[in-house]
Write a structure and sequence with these properties.
By secondary structure, the protein is an all-alpha fold. The chain is built from 11 helices and no strands.
Length: 240
Amino acid sequence: MHSSLMSSSKTQSTLLERLRDGEDALAWSEFSDRYWRLVFSYARRRGCSDHTAEDVVQEVMLVVFTHREVFRYDRARGRFRSWLGALVQNTVAKRRRQPADRIRGCGGDQQEGILAVEADEAEPDAAWEAAFDDAILATLLDEVRREVTPQTYQAFELTALQDLPGDQVAEITGLRRNAVYAARLRVVRRLQELGAFYREDGQLTERLKQALASRPSAAVERSVVARIEETDRRGVELNQ
């Protein structure tokens, strides 16, 4: 298991416990905000259009909302990661098999589908593993960005993610050239402290670029957020 996965396991298990309890309204919002981009990214990696990937997100989130009691986090087995991966893979496969005009609205036959996922315990495929790792990296970067000053993060972003030379970044940020590289190193080290992987073979910044490139556009963000809110309403109706 990657160190980043281990470092985030306590936070993840706590969130799942809150979600399963059903009394914490913020848990669902936190869960959907943390994981919908992962689901969307995987669907796109598997060849879905933006619209179909949005459908996958909405369907997966409805299953999660209406079957929160299935969560039993097992750190050693990575149960949640595998369960969510199997659910998303099955949903994508169903969407890709069926013509758009034959796809039934989500919610009608989800009990059978989720039980199949629960019993299957299939290992996630390579595309899911890559999407999951990218989502973790992007989340860690968001956390570091909130911790450091805007100037420090800008120096890191321009040098590490946009490959601008130090002299040019110094002019943009108002920092000395040495301070620019010190700021970059500070962000990288903090990412490593939080559990970012790929540090041993020097691939961390390249994987960060990939993780950020896989994030959906602003238009997709707005559309998915609206659909998740709709899912929230439908889930409440189904649970009544």
